[in-house]
């Protein structure tokens, strides 16, 4: 059963310096909390979200019965991340379109909507912003930070930027950086958006339009990479949309997989902001903690002091198990405490969001260990 939650917002007037050299001031971060912070303030767990998700991690809004959080199967009373034991925080990334200040909001310096003028943000910038919100909540140290995909990159970055504030870190279905193929997919998706005639250089809000065609294509490209070949073949195969009827058309929808992708693209274009998509995929591209160390991941991760859990999925070709093993090896080379699970699952990258008893069991056991460390404080 899900539980009722309320979205909150916190405003920050002081400028936040960004890795680009720019800064942003007078911004707000949307967030949600689940469970209770203990007297010692030692049971807080930060959950970082992936590309098209938000701070709405678990539970549902009372007036929206079908509004379950994107990781509701993982987080809640009695679940793998048990909110009867832990105080869980979800924060919407700066630049997103789900409540935190982003391109759709007004720039306090100009009085106009940011649009394409919203500053480029990085994973490290998001972590800095999250740290400010935790400061305001009076949380000095996290029992754990956890995330999947892009969220996993944020969790990893937390252990490097604020090693003294993180005791445990779960990095799920993630990677230490994007390979060339992943950057290429992101660039094709971005080009679909920026070449849409309704994009208007990122200032489409002023024209009262949305670059829906570009967003649809971007989502279709992305969705293909989230699924495995096995799942697509099992769900759709070569099924025709209209039984056995072939139209011999280069433009009509002939196959079920085409219909499914168009549906996903249409749905995405109704709720996601085009400039946010550009910002977040570029943040993915830029993330590379080993870059400042000549590509040596071992040297980059030497700063981390947390105990780690890494989870990968056998059919995830976007963030393959080999990428998680790179992180595991670098941590072991630094003599860090690491648990690693490689789940044989057919679902591709999306597996980190789905119900798999082995996967949920691994996470449950890991958090039970953290609760045991906290003792009566959990």
Automatic annotation (TrEMBL):
The active site is at residues 149, 316, 349. Pathway: Amino-acid biosynthesis; L-methionine biosynthesis via de novo pathway; O-succinyl-L-homoserine from L-homoserine: step 1/1. It is an enzyme of class 2 (transferase). Substrate binds at residues 219, 350. It is found in: Cytoplasm. GO terms for cellular component: cytoplasm. Its EC number is 2.3.1.46. One of its GO terms (molecular function) is homoserine O-succinyltransferase activity. InterPro entries: AB_hydrolase_1 (IPR000073), AB_hydrolase_fold (IPR029058), HAT_MetX-like (IPR008220). The keyword Transferase applies. Its main location: cytoplasm. One of its GO terms (biological process) is methionine biosynthetic process. It catalyses: L-homoserine + succinyl-CoA = O-succinyl-L-homoserine + CoA. The keyword Transcription does not apply. Belongs to the AB hydrolase superfamily. MetX family. Transfers a succinyl group from succinyl-CoA to L-homoserine, forming succinyl-L-homoserine. Homodimer. NCBIfam families: homoserO_Ac_trn, PRK00175.1. HAMAP family: MetX_acyltransf (MF_00296). This is Homoserine O-succinyltransferase. It comes from Xenophilus arseniciresistens. The gene is metXS.
């Amino acid at each position: 059963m899900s539980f009722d939650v309320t979205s909150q917002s916190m405003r920050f007037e002081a400028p936040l310096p960004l890795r680009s050299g720019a800064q942003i001031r007078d911004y707000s971060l949307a967030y949600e909390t689940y469970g209770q912070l203990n007297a010692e303030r030692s049971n807080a767990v930060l959950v970082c979200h992936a590309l098209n998700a938000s701070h709405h991690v678990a539970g549902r809004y009372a007036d929206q019965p079908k509004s379950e959080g994107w990781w509701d199967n993982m987080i809640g009373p009695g679940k793998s991340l048990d909110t009867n034991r832990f105080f869980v925080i979800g924060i919407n990334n700066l630049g997103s379109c789900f409540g935190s200040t982003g391109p759709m909001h007004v720039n306090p310096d100009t009085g106009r909507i940011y649009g394409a003028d919203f500053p480029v943000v990085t994973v490290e910038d998001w972590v800095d912003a999250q740290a400010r919100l935790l400061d305001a909540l009076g949380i000095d140290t996290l029992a754990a930070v956890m995330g999947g995909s892009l969220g996993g990159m944020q969790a990893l970055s937390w252990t490097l930027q604020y090693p003294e504030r993180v005791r445990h870190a779960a990095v799920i279905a993630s990677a230490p950086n994007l390979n060339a193929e992943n950057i290429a997919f992101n660039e094709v998706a971005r080009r679909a958006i920026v070449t849409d005639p309704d994009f208007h250089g990122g200032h489409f809000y002023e024209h009262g339009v949305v670059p829906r065609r570009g967003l649809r294509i971007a989502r279709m490209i992305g969705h293909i990479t989230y699924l495995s070949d096995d799942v697509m073949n099992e769900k759709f195969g070569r099924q025709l949309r209209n039984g056995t009827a072939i139209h011999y058309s280069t433009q009509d929808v002939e196959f079920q997989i085409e219909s499914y992708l168009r549906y996903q693209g249409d749905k995405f274009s109704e709720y996601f902001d085009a400039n946010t998509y550009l910002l977040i995929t570029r943040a993915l591209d830029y993330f590379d903690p080993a870059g400042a160390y000549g590509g040596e991941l071992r040297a980059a991760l030497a700063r981390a002091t947390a105990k780690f859990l890494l989870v990968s999925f056998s059919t995830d070709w976007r963030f393959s198990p080999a990428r998680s093993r790179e992180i595991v090896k670098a941590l072991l080379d630094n003599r860090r405490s690491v648990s690693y699970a490689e789940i044989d699952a057919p679902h591709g990258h999306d597996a980190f969001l789905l119900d798999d008893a082995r996967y949920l069991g691994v996470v449950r056991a890991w958090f039970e260990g953290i609760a045991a460390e906290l003792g009566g404080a959990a």
